[in-house]
Design brief:
This protein has 435 residues and is mostly helical. The protein has 18 helices and three strands. It has three domains: 109 residues, no CATH class; 108 residues, DNA polymerase, domain 1 (Orthogonal Bundle), CATH 1.10.150; 133 residues, Intergrase catalytic core (hpI Integrase, Chain A, Orthogonal Bundle).
Length: 435
């Protein structure tokens, strides 16, 4: 019945030649013009948009696609959802239509017709991936760390490290994993980390951090009676990291921003997160902790909070606020959990609030896309923010409060990037004038 409806759509009754021409160009460019759903897609978009009076400059004129906004795209989405709610469109076919809608928005951006960023609703998957299986043991490990009273930030770091380790273990949920399995997995992971260190892709201290997480994970397995051996990190991979003041150049930052716009599947959320960190120097955990009501659009303010720095209120630019506003229009498509007030949600479609390790992964992914290496992290942008603030003569006490440092000595550290600031600091203490 549905297939019959699709072939009887009165496309010939659409008298907007400019619209039809644009849609045809879109279909040809993305090679979907001959798909079973393209005609349906063309018709349904037209039927929704022709009801929007703000898209028509005058009566009987064609649709002004340059005036298309996210609110119109969401009306199309709502219409498609209604069709398969009323059993007029199968769920799988509806998802294809919404996928076309996302591609169409990209097409309009490419043609510089309308600057739209759309993401279809997330949907549940029936099949379980390897990572889904891994999540079960990782959740148990997280519970173990909570009982041991580890800080939330530390738990998130260990979680990301163990996910990385398990990717080298062929772990399968429900399968018995003897000592030999875990010992082989550790050997493979150590071998991988050693190679990364030798190729200078990571520092030895980074490898050591991963292995400390693995050591704790194995202690958890031992207490669960899943293994019966103790793990000792090889001496060659033991090295504590040195405190560093990382710095990201504006050129590298812009390249990553450009790549987010080009490749991200969650553009509005990803760019909002990136710009908030860039403008405030906040920590990933503070992004995780953000609620919707922590953004004050009229006052251009954001409230950041975490245990380490308590709470502070900072300003945001109009640009960043505009992306957050657009993101909030499609936030429901991330299927937020009931009563969830979290601003940013997991891209997996679980509806849970975003985790700080996802934010770290976001930076890692787009750095690799641009540079084939990790040139800067969220921590780097935090360091860059502090350094730039000091270099622009913002008072050190103000910078301290802005970034949530508990002790002024933490902020003093960043003066070393500018010898003139350092000299002035010591002169104020009469160390350069014989006093």
């Amino acid at each position: 019945m549905e297939q019959k409806k699709q072939h009887q759509l009165p496309i010939s009754n659409i008298n907007d030649n400019a619209y039809l021409s644009l849609i045809e160009e879109f279909g040809l460019e993305y090679r979907i013009k001959n798909s079973d759903f393209f005609e349906y897609f063309t018709y349904e978009i037209y039927m929704v948009l022709k009801k929007e009076k703000d898209l028509f400059p005058q009566k009987n004129a064609g649709i002004q696609m340059s005036k298309l906004e996210l609110v119109h795209i969401l009306k199309i989405q709502k219409h498609v959802q209604l069709l398969f709610t009323q059993s007029e469109l199968e769920n799988s076919k509806g998802l294809i239509i919404l996928k076309y809608l996302k591609i169409f928005c990209s097409f309009l951006r490419k043609k510089e017709i309308s600057n739209l960023y759309y993401m279809p609703p997330k949907h549940s998957r029936n099949s379980f991936s390897k990572m889904n299986l891994e999540d079960c043991i990782i959740r148990k490990f997280e519970k173990y760390l909570e009982i041991k009273r580890y800080a939330l930030t530390t738990i998130h770091i260990y979680r990301a490290s163990i996910k990385y380790f398990l990717s080298y273990s062929n772990y399968q949920q429900g399968k018995r994993h003897p000592n030999e399995f875990w010992q082989l997995s550790i050997h493979q992971f150590e071998k991988h980390l050693t190679k990364e260190v030798n190729l200078e892709k990571i520092a030895t201290s980074t490898a050591y951090s991963y292995l400390k997480a693995v050591r704790l994970f194995l202690r958890f397995l031992s207490e669960e009676n899943q293994i019966h051996f103790s793990y000792h990190i090889p001496k060659r991979l033991i090295q504590n990291g040195k405190r560093s003041n990382e710095y990201a150049s504006i050129q590298n930052i812009l390249l990553v921003i450009e790549k987010i716009f080009e490749l991200s599947k969650n553009i509005l959320q990803d760019i909002s997160i990136f710009l908030i960190i860039l403008e405030t120097g906040c920590r990933p955990i503070e992004i995780e902790n953000l609620n919707i009501d922590d953004i004050y659009f009229h006052e251009k303010l954001i409230v950041l909070k975490c245990k380490k720095s308590n709470q502070r209120t900072l300003t945001l630019t109009e640009t960043t606020l505009s992306f957050i506003k657009q993101y909030l229009q499609i936030r429901e498509n991330y299927l937020p959990q009931l009563n969830s007030k979290a601003l940013f949600l997991a891209a997996s479609g679980t509806g849970a609030q975003i985790r700080s390790d996802h934010i770290t992964h976001l930076f890692r992914k787009f750095n690799l896309k641009v540079f084939n290496e990790i040139r800067f992290t969220p921590k780097t942008l935090r360091h860059t923010f502090i350094t730039n603030a000091l270099n622009h003569n913002i008072h050190i006490d103000q910078v301290k409060e802005s970034v949530g440092h508990k002790h002024l000595i933490s902020t003093h550290y960043y003066f070393y990037r500018d010898i003139n600031h350092m000299k002035k600091l010591f002169m104020d203490k009469k160390l350069f004038n014989g006093g």
